[in-house]
Amino acid sequence: MTQRILFITSTRIGDAVLSTGILSYILKTYSNSRVTIACGPLVETLFQGVPNLDKIIVLKKQSWKRHWIKLWKTAVGTQWDIVIDLRNSAVSRLIPARKRFIFGNHIDQTQHKIVQNASVIRVSEAEAQPRLFPTPEQIAKASTLIPDGTPVLGVGPTSNWIGKTWPVENFKTLVAQLLESGCAGWRVAVFGAPGEEDIAYQLYNALPPDIRLDVIAKGTPGDAAASLMRCQLYIGNDSGLMHSAAAGGVPTIGLFGPTNDKIYGAYGKKTAVVRTPESMKDLIGYFGFNPKTLTDTLMRGLKVEKVAQTVRNLMH
C-alpha cells in the first residue's frame, strides 16, 4: 500500500540539507511512499531529484503568514499517512494524518542539528545521515563546470554574513600552501552564492589560470551541490555549501568563529571543524552586539597554519 508522506522543511540551505537525513530514512523505511515536500523557494532545487517525489510545494513567505494558509489549503484534502514538520507549524496539526512528527520544545536544541532532526522521528543519528539527491540535469551541468580530470579542491571563501567570513587573503595563502604540498597537481574550484561574487572572484583571480574552475553563482543550489560532489576535498566557511559538501560525502572542513559549531558544524566521518581561539560567546556574547551593523569579519583569530594542519590530518 502506498504511503502518503508530507515533509515540511526549511527555507535555508544549510538546514534543508541537514533535514535530508530524515527524508533518506523515510524513503528507505517506506519504499512504496509518495512524498510531498514543502520548502522555501531557495532550496527547492535540492529536492527535485528525491525518489518517489509526488510534488514540491514552494512556500514563498507572505505577510500575515499567508504562505501557511496556502499550504493548509493544498494539504487538507489529503489523508496523509505521515506528516513530518520541522517548522513546528499549525498546518501539521490541522490536516488529517495517521502519524505526526513535529519539531517542538521537547527536542534538545543544544545538540547538533542532525541529532535534533533524528529525535523528531525517534531514530538514532546514524539512521538520519544527510544525503544529496541531484537530478540528471544537475549532474550534467556539474560535469561541465567541473570536467573530468585531476583531483579538485573545492573552496568556499564566502558566506551570507561578514562576521563568519574568514579573510580572503587567508584563503589565498592556504590554497597556495596546499598546492605546493598535499594537493599538488590538483585543480581548484571556487564556489560562491549569488551576491557573494566579489570575495569569491578575489580568490579565483589569484589562482593560476590553468587550474582554476569557476563555480561562482553558476546556477541553483542544486547545481552547486552536484558540483561539490565532484570535488575530492572542500574547505569553506559555515554555509549551505559546507553542509552540501559534507552531505555529498566529500571530505569537508568547516571554518567557525561567531557561529555555533556544536549545532551546525560540518557533520560526518569525513569532516572536521576548525574554529577561532575565541569562543562564540567571546565574539558575539557581549552587551550591545548587533550583527546587522558589523562591518568586518570576526574570524581573524583563526590562523592559516591551524587550518592547514587540520587539512593534513583529514587527508591522512
Q: How would you describe this structure to a colleague?
A:
With 316 residues, this protein is an alpha/beta fold. The protein folds into two domains: 4-127, Rossmann fold (3-Layer(aba) Sandwich); 136-315, Glycogen Phosphorylase B (Rossmann fold), CATH 3.40.50. It is built from eleven helices and eleven strands. The protein has helices at residues 13-29, 66-75, 113-120, 136-145, 168-180, 197-205, 221-228, 240-247, 261-264, 280-284, 304-315, and strands spanning 4-8, 34-39, 53-58, 80-85, 97-102, 152-156, 187-192, 212-216, 233-237, 252-256, 271-275. A six-stranded parallel beta sheet has the order 8-7-6-9-10-11, with helices on both faces. The longest helix is centred in the N-terminal third of the chain and has 17 residues, at 13-29. It is globular, with a radius of gyration of 20 Å. It starts with a strand and ends with a helix.
